[in-house]
Design goal:
The complex is a heterotrimer of chains A (about 130), B (about 120) and C (about 100). Chain A has five helices and five strands. Chain A is an alpha/beta fold. The two termini of chain B are about 25 Å apart. Chain B has a single domain, classed as DsrEFH-like (Hypothetical Protein Ychn, Chain: A, 3-Layer(aba) Sandwich). The chains are: A alpha/beta (about 130), B alpha/beta (about 120), C alpha/beta (about 100).
Chain lengths: ~130, ~120, ~100
């Protein structure tokens, strides 16, 4: 079965960690993740600039590793990202901002990608709100 | 076959970007001609209050965008009667033409959509 | 179509649980995770609300959250993440009350 998983909260939020553990369980169960979509404060889960204390869980780092290892399609909503100062090289250059904090493997794109994922997937599961 | 999506908007209009970002999901889906519905629930019904002046808090006019929903093909608009009543909002004073539904009708509404997003 | 509703917020001073229970279909289920598992504390108002809702085998809780918070859970069936994924497929769709 195909899953679309949407994350609406930053890396330090319990729901972001929960989304990651859920996503891992989806793959462990032999299912497919059609797309991960990061919206609202979920764009911060994709930030390359998050620094967690050594004795705490690096959820942002774990998301990145999970996406890279499993070669998943991970989209960050561009409108939500810009508003929150999460920029890739192209956008930082376009708006002349001093920092690039959205690395590969994430891609900036529009809400159309969330809708496409919802159409393709058997289940759309959202995490966030905290 | 195209899957239908119900967007449930629960946040008050000037409590951060949530109300607008829920609406953006609806408008994006409408632009792709997807079968969508939008339900205003809990504090989300405050988005429907008439005569709001967002410029007083230096915000954009959300009502104008809400009113654009039918133009984007999103005509299925609903509000929870319990949420309205609890907040002293009379159904006939709302700024947007919505179907006001009671709890049983809302349960049936949620049941008939293929996907749901609540924010 | 049936829905698995997911709530992650504390029921104290928050409307999500009450609203969800009002809208819950007769074949829908509810999964409590995060601080929502506090609703399982016996003697509390949300616990009474859950009991009154008579969800029987349609009430679930994420085990790790019950454990972390030392909540004595008698009402909900505890599930792990594999169980959460299974529930997502057993019901026709998932509605997270963000």
């Amino acid at each position: 079965m195909k899953f679309a998983i949407a994350v609406f909260s930053p890396a330090h939020a319990p729901s972001s960690r929960r989304a990651l553990r859920y996503a891992e369980a989806v793959l462990a169960g032999g299912h497919e993740i059609a797309r991960l979509f990061f919206y609202q404060d979920g764009v911060h889960s994709a930030s390359a600039n998050v620094v967690t204390p050594q004795d705490e869980l690096d959820v942002a780092g774990q998301w990145r590793a999970f996406i890279e290892t499993n070669q998943l399609d991970a989209v960050v909503c561009i409108a939500a990202a810009l508003r929150r100062g999460v920029l890739d090289e192209a956008e930082a250059s376009r708006y002349q901002r001093p920092a690039v904090n959205l690395p590969k493997p994430w891609e900036l794109s529009g809400l159309g990608q969330l809708h496409e994922a919802a159409q393709v997937a058997d289940r759309l599961v959202c995490f966030g709100g905290d | 076959m195209t899957k239908s999506l119900l967007i449930i908007s629960r946040q008050a209009p000037w409590n951060g970007p949530s109300a607008r970002e829920a609406l953006d999901i609806a408008l994006a889906g409408g632009a792709f001609d997807l079968p969508l519905g939008m339900l205003f629930l809990d504090d989300g019904v405050f988005q429907l209050a008439a005569d709001q002046q967002p410029s007083a808090v230096q915000q954009k006019n959300l009502a104008a965008n809400l009113q654009a929903l039918p133009m984007f093909g999103v005509e299925e608009l609903f509000a929870c009667s319990h949420s309205l009543a609890r907040r002293g909002l009379a159904a006939d004073t709302l700024a947007l033409p919505v179907q006001v539904l009671d709890d049983a009708a809302l349960a049936a509404l949620i049941a008939r959509f293929d996907q749901v997003v609540t924010l | 179509m049936t829905t698995l509703h997911v709530i992650a917020h504390s029921p104290f001073g928050d409307e999500r649980l009450a609203s969800c229970l009002r809208l819950l279909g007769t074949d829908d289920a509810l999964l409590l995770c995060g601080d929502a598992v506090y609703a399982l504390r016996s003697g509390s108002e949300p616990h009474r609300l859950l009991q009154a809702a008579g969800l029987a085998r349609r009430l679930f809780a994420l085990e790790e959250d019950v454990q972390a918070r030392a909540v004595a859970n008698e009402l909900a069936k505890a599930v792990d993440y594999a169980g959460f994924v299974e529930l997502s497929l057993h019901y026709d769709k998932v509605n997270s009350w963000l």
